[in-house]
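Open question from group meeting: does this chain pack into something compact, or does most of it stay loose? Before anyone orders reagents, we agreed to write out a predicted structure and look at it together. Recording both the input and the output here so the notebook holds the full record.
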Amino acid sequence: LDRSSAASDVYKRQAQLTESQRSVYRLNLYEDMPVRQIAVVLNLKYKQAEKKLGVARKKVRGFVEKALAG
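Structure tokens returned:
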């Protein structure tokens, strides 16, 4: 598995995140938005946004590890 196909696989696996996890993750990663601003944009409490981002990052980290191992 080369790096580009591993990256593609990880991107596709982001669909396994819940909609809210995906939204928080993408706003943080691609829009460089801080958690406080994400909470406002998505009408979440700060702690909710923080938790969703943490869970999403952990899942994506697992996807990356799996893609690179396999």
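Observations to bring back to the group:
The chain has a mean pLDDT of 90.
The radius of gyration is 13 Å.
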